[in-house]
Amino acid sequence: MASNGSSDGLIVSFGEMLIDFVPTVSGVSLAEAPGFLKAPGGAPANVAIAVARIGGKAAFIGKLGDDEFGHMLAGILKENGVSADGIPFDKGARTALAFVTLRADGEREFMFYRNPSADMMLTPDELNLELIRSAKVFHYGSISLIVEPCRSAHLKAMEVAKDAGALLSYDPNLRLPLWPSADEARKQIMSIWDKADVIKVSDVELEFLTGNNNIDDASAMSLWHDNLKLLLVTLGENGCRYYTKNFHGSVDAYNVKAVDTTGAGDSFVGALLCKIVSDHDIIQDEHRLKEVLKFACACGAITTTKKGAIPALPTEKEVLAFLEGEGK
User: GO MF annotations for this entry (predicted)?
Assistant: First the structure.
C-alpha cells in the first residue's frame, strides 16, 4: 500500500479513554499479580492514535476526569498527533480505570472501576459539533451506550456526523462486565446497528450477537442490513472475513508470536479507516479492499508483538517493512 492512501480526511473517534493497569507478569490472576504498569487505553482512543501513527488525521471525543490521569491521557493523545479539541473534563467524576489480566496465551480479562467514571458523564451539550461535522469518518463503540447522559451524547453525535455526510464506523467492542446483563448488551448494541456504514465484529462478538456458535458466512450475513457498505469479522490468528453488497471473501493473518492482543482490533480498524477515509469507493473494489485489509491485518499482527495497546501501534514505515519481510 502506498502511503498516499492516507490523507487529509478527518477521522473522529468517539467514546471512552481510560487507564489500563496491566500485570507485570503474564499468566497470573489479578490477585496473584506482583505489580501493575499503567497503560493508556480505551478502544476509541486506541483507534484515533492508530490512525495518527500511520499518517492519518484523527480527533478524539470523550470526557475525562479533571484529575492527573485525565490530563495525562489528553496529553498522550496530543503527543501522538490526535486532536483533543473534543474533550471536556469532569470535576466530579474520575477517569475510568481497568485492571487487565494477561493470560498465558496473550488474551485478556478485565475488571473495571467506573461508578460513575467521567466518560459516562458526557452530555449532548458538551459535544464539539464543529469537530463532528468536519469528520469524513465518525467511529464509535458500544460502551458509550450503557448509561445516560453519555448514551444521549453518543446518539446525537452519530446523528450530527451522519447529517454532515460522514461515513459511520462501528466496532461494538463488547465488554460484558460493564453491562447490567448480556441481554441488555445485545439489545443496546443492536439498537444502533442499522445506522452504521462499516461494522467490524470479532468472532466472539459474532457468536454473542447471533446466538450461533458457527463462525460462517450465513451467521455473519444474518447481521447484514440494507444501509451497510462493509461488514468485517476478525478471526484473530485466522485473519478476517469481509462482506459487501456484491462480494465477500477472506484475508489471511500473519504468523507472529503474540505477547499481548490488547489493541490489535483497534489497530486493524484504525488502519482500515485511514486507508478508506478519502476514497470510500475502495469498499466497492474487491482487489483494492483486499490490499487495504492485508495492510490492516499487518497492523493488528504487529500490535500483538508488544505489551500494551498504544505503545504497540505501528507506524506506516514499520508496517511496510513488515509486509516486505512477509513478501506480500
Answer: ATP binding; fructokinase activity
CA distance 202 to 240: 9
Residue 268 Cα to chain centre, angstroms: 8
Where does the pLDDT of residue 1 fall: very low under 50, low under 70, confident under 90, or very high at 90 and above? very low
Other C-beta atoms closer than 10 Å to the C-beta of 220 total: 22
**Cβ neighbours of residue 303 closer than 8 Å, sequence gap 6 or more:** 262, 263, 264, 266, 267, 309, 312, 313, 314
Question: Buried b vs exposed e over 249-260: b needs ≥16 C-beta within 10 Å?
Answer: eebebbebebbb
Decide: pTM greater than 0.90.
Answer: yes
Q: Please answer whether residues 124 and 132 qualify as being in contact, where contact means their C-beta atoms are separated by less than 8 angstroms.
A: no
What cell was used for 214?
Answer: 458457527
DSSP letter at 139 equals: E
Residue 228 to residue 4: CA distance in whole angstroms: 26
Q: Return the SS3 of 166.
A: coil
